[in-house]
Amino acid sequence: MRILYTSSDIRKSIADLLTKSKGRRVVISAFVGSGSEIYLPKPAGIELYCWPKAGSTNPNTIHELIKRRVDVSFANQVHIKLYWTSDRGAVITSANLSTNALGSGGQIELGVLLDKGKVDIDRVLRQVKAKPVSDKALLNLEYAHHEYVKRNPNEKVRATKPRNFNDWFSSTAREPWKFATWDLSDIRLSSNAKSLLKEEFGNTSCRSWMSADSGDYRDNDWILCVRETPKRLGKASWMFAHHVISVPKSERKKLNDGFATQVLQVGPLQRYEQPPFSLNDKKIQQAIQRAYRDTEQNGANPSRGFIRAIHRYYNE
User: How far apart are CA 243 and CA 241, in angstroms?
Assistant: First the structure.
């Protein structure tokens, strides 16, 4: 047994175990933070068990690990930090799989390096009672994480790099998004919107908002917005549905073009979690415009034909 006194010692020992092992490899980490895939060398085949707790386990990192062929399972309430191999030994530590613990976060951690055979991994896993990650469980974590980031905008929980469209399209559990077109109509905030903003934030400041039919959108939806004019389509952009609220019937025609709800994005996009995919390149912008013209996308829910067309044009 060897005592690991620093995060650097722990990180190097974990990397050594996982890289040199030719047997079974198991990682149990209560939380999996943003960008922590860099601390799992030779990821394919690693069994990872973690607690899908919003604000602590980052769904973008889980997507990335699954893409790298890590076998991910979820287990509520698990608080173990164990990095185990069948042939090289194990590290038991206070350090989660995160940059805060193993990288530049500055957390003070301690661990021990044990020889092989000292930990009965099957006994540990029987206590963990984990289930392989399902599409539903991953999407639930996505929504819960959006809610957490929305309410804690100053915490560093965003992914370090947004996914591109192909990453999203090939995900085992695609994070859903909605669609909207907009014009330059003079839509003003309803009294319900102003009251909510005043109560929650102390003022009526709101970054952007739009009108919508009842049921089209819900809180924490990502909405792909395209400006539409008689002559051309504008650049696509993301909107985050911080709140979706009802507009009083007496105000719908005058303030809201007759629509029943308003969708509010209270702060800038940087305040929220990463959108489903990046729009910051010419290829995706052109693909969205071409797909929209081809499919005549209608309604808030993007059709399969619309999504397939975006994918086709994006990869030409």
Answer: 5
